Amino acid sequence: MTSEKTPAAGAASPGGERPPAPVPPDPIVPAISSAERLALAERYGLTKMGVRPPLWAYVKDVASRWAFIRVLGTASAYARNQNTYLGQLWAVLNPILNATVYVLIFGLLLDIARGGVENVVAFIVIGVFLFRFVEQSVNGGAQSIAKRTNLIRSLHFPRAVLPISNVMSHLTTLVPALVVMCLIVWSSGYMGENDLVPVTWEWLLLVPAVALLWIFNMGLAFIMARVVAITPDLDNVISFVLRFAMYGSGVIFPVVRYVQELPDALQVWLGPILEYQPIAVYLYLGRSSLMDEEAFVQDPTMWILGVIWAIVFFVAGFIIFWRGEERYGRD
Amino acid sequence: MTDDVTEADAHLDFDLEVEEDDVGEHAEAIPLGDPCLVVDDLHIVFRVFGGKSREQAEKSGAHVEKAAPPKKPFVKRLLGAGRQHVGAVSEVHAVRGVSFTARHGESIGIVGINGSGKSTLLRAVTGLIPPHSGSVFVDGEPALLGVNAALMPQMTGAKNIEIGGLALGMTPKQIDEKFDEVVEFADIGSFVDLPMKTYSSGMAARLRFAISSAAIPDILMVDEALATGDAAFKARSKARIEEVRQQAGTVFLVSHSISTIEAMCTRVLWMHQGKLVMDGPVEEVTAAYRQFVRAHRQARSGGRAGGTRRGRNGGKNKRKG
């Protein structure tokens, strides 16, 4: 904030014995006109700053910063959990505790998941772990530009690096968490009256499922980054939208079952939306890879949809973000 | 605000600070090349959320203008009662129509009292703050000397050298090659494997400077980076700046120490209230500026003899728009 008084204001203040405040020289009038300066810039082949680069050049620029994205992502993932005694263990403990709460309340107490699902523990655990990645990407993406104005105002780099590396940092903590998730799903076969969960080659499909989710999340992060950078107020709305998304995507109970109780007219359009919206698709892909149940068989349609959603969101998000490139850091 | 010494007054002393080891030194003149930077009628306006209302800010001398009114007057009326807290958006016009041209090999200092827009001008010229209107043309890539924003205090010095180098656009291979040089230049020895938050402030400042000067840019911007560090380090930094100039680069320097500016620059821009009020050879501008600051301080401190001297760290907070 500017805090000095104008010289005139200083002179007018009471306390008459003081000498008058000095007046700086008048602003200089440039010797050459604006047009002449522009001509000069052109003659010496100078490039204009603060102009958004063409899309393709921007893509190449971002790709050339891959090492930066990787290092920034892994370092901030590490830094996030560093100030605790258990340190990096929290990357795994956090989602476990989260899942425990939901399993206890929704799975055991309310028994809400009983609607065609046999292994409630596996259902909820996979849902919670995967949805957490979406949640973190949206929140992280939203803050990746807005909270790092300082960095943006001190160094040149394509700003898309920030949301990408943010999602990367969450992916870094997700990988060990996924290993734990697989262990829980496997051991859930020995709990209560659940059937054994066989470990098959199908489990490897979790890798492409998470990869698609990652691409989708980057798209989300791009959109959120631009939106929140320009309208910071929306940061406050995100958590409500996310909670809505959580209950609407069948993270902790199969929401599609409840649609069947609605009137037909509503069912017709609400059913497909809930079933084929991106988050529901990725949860289905994750569950169909690990769970051996009739409700979650491998479905090529879902895989195709997963690919389409990932590409659509990533490309659209990238373009939306790129179109704001020259604005980031101004306010 | 009372008639007491304002924050800006406290800084005036700082502005006149003399670094003993700089006195008498002068930047050697290097034959000037072609223009490498053209700034044309540059305006920078910050949007400030939850800012003071215009009237209040005006009293404290800031150039605050109200942002365009919201589209819905009804909503505005609804919020009218708490306007200072709800939906308060004001604009700070930090740089107001600056034009100049710089040539290869020039070393340009920017002076001005606090809040005159020096740092903002520097960042805008680097292309880091998009202009509100006007334009900046450059040859090559300007770089601000300062990677601190990219660094992570929780990580080790070594990791931070990697992060900082990558942030500056170096490749992993270049960073490997420069690593030892950076550690040596920063003079941190075995501390390089400890988290940066365990460093003394001098060590951290040296490491930051060493990292940011690892890459030699076409146009180097320095914002008071030399304020920290011991004499030996200062000498090495100066050598680094000379190195950039010798390679036909251009250096911009914002410093609160006039003697540093005199020792390192060949040309000085004087900013006042967001406008350029003087632009010329170093002796001429610094002489006039010195006189202005002295008179300004006397006028402020009035009857009190000698003015109030505050510690040099009395609020070095830079503009954070």
Automatic annotation (TrEMBL), chain A:
Please tell me whether the keyword Transmembrane is annotated for this protein.
Answer: yes
Q: Where in the cell is it found?
A: Cell inner membrane
Q: Which domain of life is it from?
A: Bacteria
| Disordered as annotated region, ranges | 1-26
Q: Where exactly are the transmembrane stretches of this chain?
A: 89-110, 116-134, 171-191, 203-225, 237-256, 301-322
Chief location category:
membrane
Listed A to Z, the keywords are: Cell inner membrane, Cell membrane, Membrane, Transmembrane, Transmembrane helix, Transport
InterPro entries per the record?
Answer: ABC2_TM_bact-type
List the membrane topology term(s).
Multi-pass membrane protein
What ranges does the record list as Pro residues composition bias? 17-26
Domain ABC transmembrane type-2, by residue range, is 86-324
Report if keyword Membrane is assigned: yes
**Which family is it part of?**
Belongs to the ABC-2 integral membrane protein family.
Report the protein name in the record.
Teichoic acid transport system permease protein
UniProtKB/TrEMBL annotation, chain B:
The taxonomy runs:
Bacteria, Bacillati, Actinomycetota, Actinomycetes, Micrococcales
Family indicated by similarity: Belongs to the ABC transporter superfamily.
Which Pfam family would be a valid example here? ABC_tran
- This protein is called Teichoic acid transport system ATP-binding protein
Q: Matching InterPro entries, A to Z? A: AAA+_ATPase, ABC_transporter-like_ATP-bd, ABC_transporter-like_CS, ABC_transpr_TagH-like, Bact_Polysacc_Export_ATP-bd, P-loop_NTPase
| UniProt biased composition (Basic residues) | 307-321
Under PANTHER family, the record lists: TEICHOIC ACIDS EXPORT ATP-BINDING PROTEIN TAGH
Where in this protein does the record put region Disordered?
A: 296-321
Q: From what superkingdom does this record's organism come?
A: Bacteria
Q: Which organism is it from?
A: Isoptericola halotolerans
Keywords attached to this Swiss-Prot or TrEMBL record, sorted alphabetically, are: ATP-binding, Nucleotide-binding, Transport
Any idea which GO molecular function terms this record carries?
ATP binding
Q: Where's the ABC transporter domain?
A: 76-298
Transmembrane segments in this chain: where?
none
